[in-house]
């Protein structure tokens, strides 16, 4: 029996040295990556190059605490008593109790191989996977253009092909973006010596952009000020029931057309953000008064019976009777009235979905019971989904523990597909 392990190890170490020398000049620079939207699943992915192979992408998951992907069969596995292994066990997926850090090595019963719990945010499956190291590449950026590729070694979890179910064709795993030690932004911050902050600009159409490690971020036309300096608001990040995800609170509730929506419970509303649900979901006790308020504010003149294609929406309108503006259809604005006094404002461009040529529907949905993993009454009041974040710049700043947001960029003549991905000569 051959024992190729020491050789492999040496090879891995020497590659690490080569990688380390290529990145030295770009340490301290933020990393930028494109964001694509999959037409079939509406999930957002980043073409982060893994182990030197391009044309692979990782699905972006704001609630995911780790990075996971399929692995080569000869991968190395970290030891259970490593710091990375402790970090991999800081958060557990819903319904997945902590049952130790790993399992005995087949070749050496005295060695404990670290395993983590990669979770598929779409189908909800969780498996056990070896914790390993993977070389990932993205581009160092000056805020206006990508400059050059940078490779860094990240702690990741392996997962079987079967865990890729319901993810876009071409994806090899998930890049967790949550508030944990092993998320993609945390590992960029640690290896690149940049701030633990990132900004997402999810595209409605075309290619969006994410920047990890701080601004500025400029969109075309480049002579305009940095978009990161034009934020409409920021609000404190909250923690919620041990989840690693991003939460804010709306201590004054929700307003539609400047009028407060009457809610049965007057306490502050918890709002989560998710990149893996399409439309914003509201808990049943909040959803019903909310759509009633929108229905009243809109009036009946353009209202139509929702066509079959409109499910799961309840309020639909004849779009030829709505006027169009740079902020989308001219409809009543929704204000989430946040802690700290700022409003997250949803204009027509983020509130109305065109379901067929003649019909636009109010694109908020009722949360399905039992789906969130919190138990029904304990679910957040609102989870903002992808459609409502598109063409907004959202800044997740773990250093200041704040969430910043731009509001709908089309109102200022920008869109999230306006980043200049051309490398300067
Ligand atoms: C937030 O929205 C509410 C309701 O529309 C409005 O009364 C308030 O003035 C807004 N606050 C800010 C800071 O714009
Ligand atoms: C994009 O960036 C390249 C490289 O800096 C530059 O030559 C080009 O003019 C930019 N394009 C636009 C539309 O600003």
TrEMBL record:
Q: Which domain of life is it from?
A: Eukaryota
Q: GO biological process annotations for this chain's record?
A: proteolysis
Q: Which SUPFAM superfamilies is this protein grouped with?
A: Acid proteases (SSF50630)
Keywords (alphabetical) are:
Signal
Matching entries from InterPro entries are given as: Aspartic_peptidase_A1 (IPR001461), PEPTIDASE_A1 (IPR033121), Peptidase_aspartic_dom_sf (IPR021109), TAXi_C (IPR032799), TAXi_N (IPR032861), Xylanase_inhibitor_I-like (IPR033868)
Q: A GO molecular-function term, please?
A: aspartic-type endopeptidase activity
User: Signal peptide: which range, if any?
Assistant: 1-24
Claim: Amino-acid biosynthesis is one of the keywords in the record: no
Please provide an example of a Pfam family that matches this protein in its UniProt record.
TAXi_C
Asked if the keyword NADP belongs to this entry, the reply reads no
Q: Which Gene3D superfamilies match?
A: Acid Proteases (2.40.70.10)
The chain positions of domain Peptidase A1 read: 43-406
Instruction: Write out the similarity annotation.
Output: Belongs to the peptidase A1 family.
Q: What is this protein called?
A: Peptidase A1 domain-containing protein
Q: Please give the organism.
A: Lolium multiflorum (Italian ryegrass)
Which lineage ranks, top first, belong to the organism behind this chain? Eukaryota, Viridiplantae, Streptophyta, Embryophyta, Tracheophyta
